[in-house]
Amino acid sequence: MVDMDTGRKQLPNIPTLQGNEAMLACATTGSRHLSKSAAQGYGGRRCLKRPWSQDEVEAVMRHMRPLIENAVTATSEECLQTKQKEPALESRSVQNIRDFVRNRGLAFKNQK
Fold first, then answer.
1. CB–CB of 105/72 below 8 Å?
2. CB neighbours of 81 closer than 8 A, spacing ≥ 6?
3. Spatial separation of the C-alpha atoms in residues 78 and 67, rounded to whole Å
């Protein structure tokens, strides 16, 4: 917006931006589901944490079990191939899958 008298650009009203939930979208998935603290600008998560469904876990384990059992981090390429082969993982990003494999591998390693 440009002020007609001065010719300067005016910044939008801050309360207007905070109240407009449609403009607050998750940076990683495009989701509009944010925690209250993130929506209010207090830091925290950019998106709500979604638990892994049983189908998603089984899909990842079918392809990544050897990596998890050996506590080896999967490559992005391996995660992409898994995502393409498994329709259950369509809503997960390659980074989500990679993080899952890393976290499960560390948990498995620490159980030994």
1. yes
2. 63
3. 10
89 and 103 co-located in one domain? yes
**pLDDT tens column, 32-50:** 555 565 556 667 778 888 9
Contact (CB, 8 A) for 89 and 60:
yes
Residues in CB range of 5: below 8 A, 6 or more apart: none
Q: pTM, whole model, 2 decimals?
A: 0.61
Query: Do 101 and 60 meet the contact criterion of CB atoms below 8 Å apart?
Result: yes
Q: Do 67 and 44 sit in the same domain of this protein?
A: no
| Beta bridge mates, 9 | 2
The domain of 6 spans: 1-48
Count, residues in the chain:
112
